[in-house]
Every structure is written in structure tokens, then in C-alpha cells.
Amino acid sequence: MVLSVRDLDVSVRFYRTVLGLRPEYPEQAEGPPLTVLPLPGGPDVALVQQRDNFKGRFDSRHCGLGRLTLAAANLGVLEAWEDRFTRMDVEHTPVVHTEEGSTLVFQDPDGTELALFVPAEPDTGED
């Protein structure tokens, strides 16, 4: 998965500092600057800064990625992320709980909407 960013250095710093991802810098013969961020147990996210970038923040009303949702291990972990985002002044919404699960929505420096999600515990009928 590739996300276009306005400033590669700012975005790499966000994903490294806020989410704890370890960037990889692949050798490139040509093309725009690119950094790969492997996700634990998931696909890689590549950040690319296009040379002709228009420098505007992402707007979800335009075609493109609506939201990138990542899994969190459990509700406790999700709530710990919410506390971390608050301490780090990361723009986010409070955790929302629904029948499907719990979601924490936040934004990267370009305004791309990201979320952490934990599915609801299955109802075993035992009460």
C-alpha cells in the first residue's frame, strides 16, 4: 500500500515516533523518494513524496483512500493508544464502541484518516 505525502521527512517522523514503525529506505535508481514502513503481521505501507506534489492536506471528499484501518490486539491496547495520542497531541477522536467492535480514529500529518480497530468479543450466550 502506498500513501502519497507532502513532506516525506515529516511523515516518516510521525509514523516512527507516534506509531513506533521502523522505516526502511530501499535503494532507488529513479523515481520519487520512498520509505517503506513494515507493519507487524501485515502489509507494508510505503510513503512516497511525489516531485509534483500539490502540497495540500488530504481531503476525504476527493477520490482516494477514505481510511486506513489497522488492528489492535485488544481493548486495553486500544485505550493505551488513545492515552498515547492524547499525551503526544495527535489529533484523534475518542474510542467509539459499537456492536462490531471498538475504533480509535486519528490523522497523520497530511490529514489521511487512520484507525485502530478491535473486533467485539463474540457473544457466547453465557450470562
UniProtKB/TrEMBL annotation:
It comes from Nocardiopsis eucommiae. It comes from the Bacteria. Residues 1-119 form the VOC domain. InterPro entries: Glyas_Bleomycin-R_OHBP_Dase, Glyas_Fos-R_dOase_dom, VOC_core. PROSITE patterns: VOC. This is VOC family protein.
